[in-house]
Amino acid sequence: MNKSRKSIFSKKWLAILFGVLIILLFIPTPYYLNQPGSIEALASKVTVEDGTKSEKGSLNLTTVYSIKVNNPYIYLYGLVAPHTEIRKEEEVKGNLSDEEYNKLMLHMMATSKQNAIVASLHAAGKKVEFTYNGIFVAQVLDNSKAKSIIQVGDIIKKVDGKSFAKSEKLIAYLKEKQAGDIVHLEFLHGKEKKEADVEVIELDKRTGQVGIGIAPEDNMTIHPSVDVEINSENIGGPSAGFMFSLEVYNQIVKEDLTRGYKIAGTGTMDAEGNVGQIGGIKHKIVAAHKEDVDIFFYPRDITEYDTNEKEIKEQVKEEGYTDIKIVPVSTLQEAIDYLEKLPEKK
């Protein structure tokens, strides 16, 4: 083979290789990458009517940076990048479509903010009134007879002509049914009113529990005695609820809870002030440490299924973090009590 033919042959294979590399850019993979995100001061995100923002220190939420692995190159990056977790798409979204997942995240954030306002105002001795708007459909099980009828994000207004203010009351009503029974649903799909009959199914063979195969959540509007505005732009999910609560409370009361410390944390918050488990806690403590946080609050492990406390202690030990105080809490009041006992930072 002469030099000319060798040159043509080489260029041909280089062109093919280049083409393959370009094609790989557009081949999606069923994975997500999670990494330590940011620490964001809450004083700029939360505003309480007649409240004060004169904090000597700061209260901060923590985030996880999550991206969809849109091509194999991002996947390869995830294999070598520090503090990076590769997760299967089904572990992140379950059986939800992108649209359903986004609806769920928006609902969870809205609920998180409402719960934060309710819990913090109650802790500060303020009143909150509620208007219940039906039951939010957070998930539809694959074996549900309602699978082709209702979708994530729909609002159930009535079942068999009965209204249910809270999800546990709907669950209790359905528990009295038998598998094979038919219930009549009235629900909203967006702004469209719909009705349908749905068969009750067995959800757990061991316990005999029945239902219609959905994950129901409360859907309410709150009417606080003090106006509170929480700007959650670019933040999804419920894990900032606890820290939102602390910031709202700190702006209401006269005493500054921060005492000059840089405080961060994570955890869900319910309307009763309970702190719940979250995902990605290892990434959040890494992010907090990078930003020289003094104190980091996290959800205490209470049940045998809880893992946040175990995970964060393992991460702190593995990374050798000695200059950040990690504090487990199970309620908002527990965190308030801890901060009230702190000495002023020197």
Automatic annotation (TrEMBL):
Which UniProt key words apply to this protein?
Hydrolase, Protease, Serine protease
Query: What Enzyme Commission number does this protein have?
Result: 3.4.21.53
Catalytic class of the enzyme: hydrolase
The record's annotation in Pfam families points to: Lon_C, PDZ_2
One GO term (biological process)? protein catabolic process
Coiled coil ranges: none
Q: Where are the transmembrane segments?
A: none
Care to name a GO molecular-function term for this sequence?
ATP binding
Q: Which reaction does it catalyse?
A: Hydrolysis of proteins in presence of ATP
Q: Where is the active site?
A: 239, 284
Q: Which family does it belong to?
A: Belongs to the peptidase S16 family.
Recorded hits in NCBIfam families, A to Z, give: SepM_fam_S16
Q: What is this protein called?
A: endopeptidase La
